[in-house]
Amino acid sequence: MRCRKNTLPPSTQRTRRRMEFLCDLSLLCGKRRMEHCLLMQLLCPVPHAILVEAFRISTQESEREGVSMSATIIFTNSFLIDCTGREPQEGATVVVEGDTIRAVEVGRRVTIPSGATVIDLRGKTLMPGLIDAHVHMGITEAIPSHARRFSEAVYVCKVAANLRETLLEGFTTVRDAGGAYWGFKEALQMGLIEGPRLLISGRSLSQTGGHGDSRHPYQSALPSDEDIRVSSLICDGVDAVRRGAREQLRLGADQIKVMAGGGAMSPTDELDTTQYSIPELRAAVEEAEAAGTYVMAHVYSPRSICNALEAGVRSLEHGNLLDEASARQIKARGAYLVPTLATYEIIARQGKEYGIGPENLRKINLAREKSFEALQIAYTTGVKIASGSDLLGPMHIYKGQELALKGEVMRPMDVLLATTRVNAELLQLADRIGTVEAGKWADLIVVDGNPLEDLTLWQRHQTSVLLVMKGGKIYKNLL
Fold it and tell me: Could you tell me if 186 and 228 are in contact, meaning their C-beta atoms sit under 8 angstroms apart?
């Protein structure tokens, strides 16, 4: 039967809806090249012509954003905070060739090669891209288990949106603390989606009833191991922990995450409990070290901190209940503390509207009350303080608040160092990122204002973060 004029058959209507979806997805992921349509094709197979049209629309949008303009980009007249520990430098010039910083000059004339792009940063601050050492890119909902209410295709889109938003906020590297599926890292490396450099832990290792066990007492079945939306792996006993660590490493984990103490968002444990025996923790450490990496441990109480240190854990997450004795132990062992203040502040204020229950909010408020005291103890003791945000789901957009919160205890420069150089050392990437020095990757941001005078500017990142460069490519340019 012939269709009436201006009336599309159902199959064509479906195709048009698919095309609209793909166009939206292409804008979401910030596509730049035709091969990016591979991701769309995986999610929703459609004819090649429609993929071409989706790419054409995404390209029009991309042209309104900053992109690399030549093989050589020279930033001039900047107020440079290089995060090496040196004082800021006025009138600095930074030369980027390809994906690398080739020169940093102050007070010396720089020869501008033919064809170079020159960006005058007079009145603006140039600094390294920020690093967040505790994110959950793969946790797309405020209540993590709610991710399974959506299809895996929708879940993939949500993670892609989280990654791109994180990059545009000025974070050029993040360490995922459990939940990011290895495929997202691969997609970033292939250029299929945009986002920061992503170091993954795979699934966090948790004991039964531990912080990574999302089951309530009335539930018994564990979620499927095949579900990419699941962020933790339940394993009990030394052999199971060893096998779990090996499996995460097989799947591309850059480090191993273990739950060594109670948590605020889990249903059946208190903050001050210890989880995993020292032999179990040591098994994870042995497997990580055999693979040339390390373990990060979720801990709150002094006892859980000391257990983790005894087992050889290198990175201690949260630590809100630490005392002076446990802080001294952290320093003596040369471990890093990763305070995550923003998550408690945001959940305490907004958790109820996200459906977080009263029992979880009680624990969140307890952690919040102790967080600044713990940071003060660690800071005064001389512990190596890194920085993370630990935000979940729709709260990812508040990462920038972490800097201002740390600034209530720490000197502004020390906050910036924690979020750049110290984090790079923790991630074992100090030779590549974290400072503005010749030979390092060109991960740079430009901000409107002086963060040493105003750490809140990242709370206005939409307008205050003017330029974001990762690996020599400009992803955001408001200059």
Answer: no
